[in-house]
Amino acid sequence: MKNFLFSILFAGLVAANPISLFAQSKYQYKINLAGATNHTVQVELITPTIKQSSIEYFFPAIVPGTYSIADYGRFVSNFKAFDKQGKELTVEHKNQNTWKIGNAQQLYKITYVVEDTWHTNIKGNKIYPMGGTNIELNKQYVINTFGFFGYFNQLEKLPFDVEFQKPSGFYGSTALVPSSSTETTDLFQLKSVHELYDSPIMYCKPDTVSVNLGRTQVLISVYSPDKQVHAATLAKAMENLLMATQAYLGGKLPVKKYAFLYSFNDEVNPKEVSGALEHSYSSFYAFPQLEEPVAKSVMTNISAHEFFHILTPLSISSKEVREFNYQQPVLSKHLWLYEGSTEYDAHHVQVKSGLTTTTQFFKALTAKIIKSKREFKDSLPFTVMSKEVATTYADQYPNVYEKGALISACLDIYLLKLSGGKYGLTALKHDLGIKFGNGKYFNDDQLFDEIAELSFPEVKDFLNKYVAGTTPIPYSDFFALAGVSYHDYIKSEVASIGNISITSLGVDNVCIVNAGNMDAFGKAMQYKLMDEIVQMDDMAVNANNYIDVINKVKQKIKQGDTLTVIVKRKNAVGKMEEVKLSATVSALREKVEQHYKMVLIEDSELTPSQCLVKNAWIKNNYN
Hints:
single chain; alpha+beta; Immunoglobulin-like; Neutral Protease, domain 2; Pdz3 Domain; seven-stranded mixed beta sheet; five-stranded mixed beta sheet; 15 helices; 28 strands
């Protein structure tokens, strides 16, 4: 989950292979959304041809990326099986997710009722709304497919036809392309259960926008019953991010279509976790109603993370993800790659493209260090945690978005250091994608060797020590390679600028909010409470940079210098006007204690290697 959010790791498809016991046929599902009642809907399946006496039909217990047991079968009731003449066959409900059907060679049709998870009172593990289902008659239908459709044992690779009967005027937003579509029906044809479970659909009256990025079409679809949020607004807010992502990935995206499905629905309890489920070609977002400015800000950052899953695990994944076991949690060791590097990319792309500042980027990284160290086991090997995250280490899962991203940041810097700024994490993931794309997969135990072969032998030592080992990452050492000073705690003395408190008020105003303890230099400067700082030592001051500017001034000025500060304050008639304040810097010093502080080192103090790595790491090369 990414802040509260879960993330789904689905991968590419496995081609269907002949199965000797069964004739090659397909699943034919039909679901009448317009006929739904009381948050339930009936599902009908014309089954594949079966050549054995009994067979088991499954709903998934767990799906990729959720890393927790869901048991979707508990929302299924009134399960019945029939032959071609309509005669009911014997069915044994073996457990929450399994039905065993007798006389299976006579099986022709199955029917059952699904209750949605958003409104259920059924007991069991909590399913968060982004991984759940919603059935609101003539309003909205959230089709996370693994909550509606099951599969037969050993028949996961057969094709699926899924037909939806929908209310008039409704549109099914999805990354899928329907094979046929009318005013009242949609037919989707899928290659396997893996593709089916990787393809959420949101039915509602349409509010959609399509954005073209070269060969890639991006669909943005919004459900907002009170029309507080609009697809066009979110599309405009995300346009720069999508273009930056395209540039970050070398100018071409590895998918032809991607769908952002946003649901802002008060059926989602605002007191519960909300967020996003990510898939290979789409992501589904479940939130209560938000005001549009808030939605723009929140969705942009979250969507950046989801979109980067087009790299991992779409192009890069292990066998555990490619051939996922929906009944038992057989998980991969490498959540640091699937989720950690994706979370890192989502922040890194924004600083590289100039959408955020280095200060904002460093603030995000330090927040992750703080949370990772304070809330999780820093000495727990990440590979061990990943493998057992659905069971033993379920409480450690959120650390994939904290320490997982930090592993990737340090690995990126280390690769740039070893390559002289020419080969970073993005290049490594590109090369891994070439080697393991198109349905191939790596073996979990061999990934570190594969990475070392593509990059440098030293990188295997890094991964064994800090990802598979118990050694905490020395963040100060790795960030220093990129010309960045980082300390968990540091105590120092700097020149006083008056012993005043300055903070950001509102969107742009940076004001003096406490002058009660002003020292002699502050009095000489003639500061006043609520002075709005406009410029300090020839540097413009705003809400985004004022902390950096103040720190630079304190480090730079020395006794005998003249400090000049331009402020805005009310004049005698109550109008704001600029006033220039200046005084000779005194010998007064301030003692400063700083926790979790990350700042750029001045270029004049850097080695050539640090300059090279810093520029390759965070310099905006796209504009």
